[in-house]
Amino acid sequence: MYRHPLARRYFIATALLCAGAGLSAAATRPVILVLGDSLSAEYGLKRGSGWVALLEQKLIREKIAASVVNASISGDTTSGGRSRLDALLAEHHPTHVLIELGANDALRGLPLEMTQDNLNQMTRSAQKTGAKVLLIGMQMPPNYGKDYGARFAALYASVAKANKAALVPFLLKGVADAPDSLLLFQADRIHPLEAAHPTLLANVWPELKRLLK
Q: Which amino acids are annotated catalytic?
C-alpha cells in the first residue's frame, strides 16, 4: 500500500510524541520513600496492616499514581537512617522522603544535639536530589521529664524550619495522648496496635497530600 511521504512522517512523529509522553509520565510518577523505625516497620503487626501499607491503599483510593518504598527498620536511630539514606536515594530516586526517626535516640539517651544534626543532614541530603521532605515528629512520655520532652519535641520543628521542610509534629497524636491510650498499644506500651494505625495515617496524610500536589 502506497503512503504519501508526509503521511509517513506524521505517523512517526505522532508515535515519538506518544512514546515521549509515556516516558514523561513515568519520570514524574511520585516515589515516596519512608525512612523510619518500628512504628513504620509494622513491629508486632501482621504484614500489610501498618500505616505505611494503609498509605499505599489510600493512594489507590485517591487515584494518585505513586509508589511507596518502605525502608523502615525496627530499632533504627537517626544515625542508622543517615548511614543508609544515600544508598536509598541512589537506588529509588524518590520524589518525596518521609523521615520518621528519633524515638530510639531518646530511648537510648543519645545526645539531642546528635539527633538534631542527623535529622538536618538527612533532610538536606534528600533535598539536594530534588525530593520533598516530610519530617514526622515524636514525643517522649512524661516520665522522661518535662524539660527533656519539650526539647526533644522541638527538634523536629527546628529542623523543619531551618530547611523549609514539611512537618507532622507528632505521629502518635490521638493515640498516645488519648484518654484510653493503653487500650491502643501492644503489651510493651510502646508500639500501637493495628487498630491505631489508621490514626497514624490520618496524622501524616494531610501534609503528604499537600506535598503531592
A: 38, 188, 191
Residue 8 inside a domain? The answer is: no
pTM: 0.87
Task: Tell me whether residue 61 is in a domain.
Answer: yes
* Sheet architecture: strand order including 132-136: 67-70, 31-36, 96-100, 132-136, 166-168
- Residue 1 forms part of a structural domain: no
Q: What are phi and psi of 98, to 5 degrees?
A: -105, 120
Domain that residue 165 falls in: 30-212
Along the 213 residues of the chain, how does pLDDT read in single tens digits?
444 444 444 444 444 444 444 434 445 799 999 999 999 999 999 999 999 999 999 999 999 999 999 999 999 999 999 999 999 999 999 999 999 999 999 999 899 999 999 999 999 999 999 999 999 999 988 777 888 889 999 999 999 999 999 999 999 999 999 999 999 999 999 999 999 999 999 999 999 999 998
Domain with 76 in it: what CATH number? Answer: 3.40.50.1110
